[in-house]
Design a protein that fits this description.
The complex is a heterodimer of chains A (143) and B (666). With 143 residues, chain A is α/β, with parallel strands linked by helices. Chain A contains 4 helices and 4 strands, in the order E-H-E-H-E-H-E-H. Chain B is globular and about 95 Å long. The model of chain B has no long low-confidence stretch (mean pLDDT 95). The chains are: A alpha/beta (143), B alpha/beta (666). The interface between A and B is large, with 55 and 55 residues.
Chain lengths: 143, 666
């Protein structure tokens, strides 16, 4: 692995807490690594586990799902579904041999711009440790 | 069919906010080469009039049918640009935004990397935009009524404004009387208006207003529904006094066996009440309440040979059999005006609040100087033969404010000025007394504040810059140990009375209200407003507004102003009578749904149900979404095994291309 390796992370953020928290990090001009790209969903409960597999298949080195703190969900219990689903998901990924450092969940509220920065740094750091993800790559076929 | 995507991409400079870190021209050039992109432009301020005009012109002249704006967060300007599209005759949901400011230019300094990231985000937005579908909002009626939680000055003011505009108000107050914290204050800074004199008339008004249903000694138990249509359950706690019969004569309270033995909440614990009580003389409603946790009859089932209050009540109002009552009301809007708690001074043990009788909080001092307080407004310490008038009085500011060690980093905003006011009142009542204020900074920022602070100093109140490190007892005196940071000298002052200027904290029941209304907290644990500058009374929940200290510490004028703001925001909805809701809700593809019912179980709002339909001659079960109940979280969609239930604007086939773009960077 070269020194220059920069992982690519796909992140799913709920509109009400984590997306707003990331907005706050921006408004506060908090600097953090550039490696993470955000997809907005209304609730972390919207994130289909297949999205995670799909992101890894498409070439992401890591995935993050972030929502409201448990109990604070804008839709009452969406983040509980997310927590359940992705607790299981993590075990499944480990079972099939995917480094668990590639899959992350966090709870970031709309007022936690500082925490968002910490989360990004941690997720990117872990993905760097884990190295490039090649496992799900379809072999390129030269016709 | 002419629905082949023709996308316009607009990259905003936001002055230099984006352009500084992102090469906006390069991003626009990159966008122009993306599939289905017809035009790609960059402009200084897309949200400005000329910026929006640019989009409208292109829709007209270039025949655009999808628009991507790469600018700030959609939480900021999604509504603005949706309106732009609608004005040009395009369905507003043909808009997708790429957040290249909050999520890119403001958080990354490396121009090259930030530009690359902006390109990715724009690509992702274009990938989604190609697959956007037109959506239509539902219009629902707004129930012409408001629920206001909290009967302090904020709740009272909001209630009066809404009721005067002709709409029904349910004002729910937890304690037996309206009035809140303001009713506990003696005078108000900087004008020295008598608090009760300006508040009491408003308290009477809310009780007598034909449009206000005042529910004191009541708590909101449950709120369901959505903007325009909230169903509320209120628990009217049993007072064990029939309010229709009670005349408020007060003989019961005199007769109570526990009279004068229970610390009075209203007097901040320095005065005493009985088990049956009126919180304070001007209480509204002027009806007595029995404290179920103290009353001998209610706790032990007997009270001497029989409850004396019952025997004394000529009106026969006492009723120990009374039960809590649940009242259900329907409202269109909700205002949260639950106020604050004062900081618990025991959390700063170095000040000895728990150890020394003559270390008191400012709220206790308010009651001590108040003419309606337990001492009739005389500043007297100790009891009976030991009673004395203090000669040396000290105030300590910022107790529980601007103090990370107790978890309160914020300034409570009122303590500097109420300290100046209390210091003035001490000087007024005890001209011979030496009054000193130990402070970190004096923040006299409001109208007339600096002038008042100046006046108090001229009256002889000494301001000592330095927060005391310790308070201890030496003989009869309290000793304040501090450093005068202006002179850099250590000080030890002997005083008779120490008043702690305690800060304002979120109420202990904040959590309950959050659970009821799905609100959020800011870092200081007060309720979070929708936008700190432009939507300071709104919350993330449509139709729910904030007023007063529930949102953060503020003084009375600011509280009243915010209450009026919340009332006017509620009135916008009430007076228009209609509100548009949820276009981004779920729908079912009934031809692929297999009727497993998993989505029915998942939905937190019971918005999905199974219905029987005829599918090619066979009756089969399929899921169906009740559009009035669906709030658009998409949890059903993530759980569906066949992908038949989908959330509009966040469909699998709209998100997957975004994943493909953002995942496939390497």
């Amino acid at each position: 692995m070269s020194e220059q390796y920069e992982p690519n992370i796909v992140a799913f953020l709920c509109n009400w807490c984590s997306y707003a928290g990331a907005d706050l990090a921006g408004t506060s001009r908090t600097q953090y690594p550039v490696n993470l790209n955000i997809i907005r969903v209304m609730c972390s409960g919207r994130v289909n586990p297949l999205f995670i597999i799909n992101a890894l298949q498409q070439g992401a080195d890591g995935v993050l799902v972030s929502g409201c703190h448990p109990g604070d969900c804008h839709y009452m219990e969406g983040n509980f579904y997310a927590r359940r689903r992705f607790g299981l998901m993590k075990e499944l990924l480990e079972y099939i041999g995917v480094d668990s450092r590639r899959f992350n969940m966090s709870w970031v509220s709309a007022s936690e711009g500082g925490k968002w920065k910490d989360v990004v740094e941690e997720v990117v750091g872990k993905a760097k440790e884990a190295g490039p993800f090649e496992q799900f790559r379809r072999n390129k076929i030269n016709w | 069919m002419n629905n082949k995507p023709k996308i316009g991409v607009y990259v905003c400079h936001c002055g230099i906010n984006i352009a500084k870190a992102v090469d906006v021209e390069a991003v626009a050039e990159f966008a122009s080469r993306l599939p289905n992109v017809k035009v790609a432009r960059n402009y200084a301020y897309m949200c400005s009039d000329p910026g929006q005009l640019l989009i409208r012109e292109d829709i007209k002249n270039e025949g655009l049918n999808r628009v991507v704006v790469a600018s700030c967060s959609p939480r900021m300007h999604e509504m603005t640009f949706r309106k732009t599209l609608a004005e040009a005759g395009l369905n507003p949901y043909y808009l997708e935004m790429a957040n290249i400011r909050e999520h890119c230019s403001w958080v990354h300094e490396d121009r090259e990397k930030a530009t690359e990231k902006a390109k990715r985000l724009v690509f992702s937005a274009v990938a989604k935009a190609r697959l956007l579908e037109p959506l239509y909002e539902n219009e629902v009626d707004v129930e012409p009524a408001t629920l206001i939680i909290g009967g302090g000055i904020a709740g009272i003011q909001a209630a009066l404004d809404i009721a005067d505009a002709g709409f029904k108000v349910y004002l729910v107050e937890k304690t037996p009387s309206v009035g809140g914290r303001m009713s506990q204050l003696d005078k108000t800074f900087p004008t020295l208006d008598c608090s009760a004199c300006i508040l009491t008339p408003k308290m009477v008004d809310v009780a007598s207003h034909p449009n206000i249903d005042l529910m004191t000694y009541s708590e909101v138990e449950e709120i369901s529904g959505y903007v325009g249509n909230f169903d509320v359950k209120v628990r009217k706690k049993a007072r064990y006094v029939d309010v229709d019969k009670c005349t408020g004569c007060g003989i019961c309270a005199q007769e109570c066996r526990l009279a004068g033995r229970i610390p009075s909440e209203f007097d901040a614990g320095i005065g005493k009440r009985g088990a049956i009580y009126l919180p304070f003389p001007q209480a509204v409603p002027a009806k007595y309440t029995i404290d179920p946790e103290r009353c001998l009859m209610l706790t032990r089932g007997k009270c001497g040979k029989g409850p004396k209050c019952e025997a004394a009540c000529a009106a026969g109002a006492i009723n120990f059999e009374q039960k809590d009552e649940i009242v259900e009301v329907k409202v269109g809007t909700v205002i949260v005006a639950t106020g604050f708690d004062v900081f618990d001074a025991a959390k700063k043990p170095e000040y000895g609040y728990s150890d020394y009788e003559n270390v008191i909080t400012a709220l206790e001092m308010e009651r001590l100087v108040s003419a309606s307080g337990p001492t009739g407004g005389n500043i007297v310490l100790g009891k009976g033969e030991d009673a004395f008038v203090p000669k040396e009085v000290a105030f300590i500011s910022c107790v529980g404010s601007r103090d990370k060690s107790v978890g309160n980093e914020y300034c409570s905003r009122v303590c500097c000025m109420y300290t100046a006011k209390l210091a003035h009142l001490v000087k007024e009542k005890l001209p011979e007394a030496n009054v000193r204020v130990y402070y970190m900074d004096v923040r006299a920022f409001g109208k007339g504040f600096e002038e008042f602070y100046d006046r108090v100093r001229r009256e002889g109140v000494r301001y000592v810059r330095g927060n005391p490190s310790e308070i201890f007892k030496r003989g009869d005196k309290l000793v304040i140990k501090a450093e005068d940071t202006l002179r850099s000298t250590p000080i030890e002052d002997e005083v008779d009375l120490v008043v702690l200027a305690v800060g304002l904290e979120p109420r202990k029941d904040t959590r309950q209200i959050i659970d009821l209304l799905r609100l959020s907290q800011s870092a200081d644990r007060f309720y979070l407003e929708a936008h700190p500058k432009l939507a300071p009374v709104n919350t993330a929940t449509d139709g729910v507004f904030l007023a007063g200290c529930a949102q953060g510490p503020k003084d009375i004028p600011d509280t009243v102003a915010q209450a009026k703001g919340a009332a006017s925001s509620a009135l916008v909805l009430l007076s228009s009578g209609k509100v548009k809701i949820g276009a981004q809700i779920s729908f079912v593809n009934e031809s692929t749904c297999r009727g497993c019912g998993y989505c029915v179980e998942i939905c937190p709002y019971s918005a999905v149900e199974l219905v029987s339909v005829n599918r090619m001659g066979n009756m089969v079960q399929v899921a169906r979404v009740n559009e009035a109940l669906c709030k658009g979280c998409g949890a059903c969609s993530a759980g569906c095994l066949s992908g038949s239930i989908q959330q509009r604007s966040f469909m699998d086939r709209q998100i997957l291309p975004q994943i493909a773009v953002l995942g496939g960077v390497r």
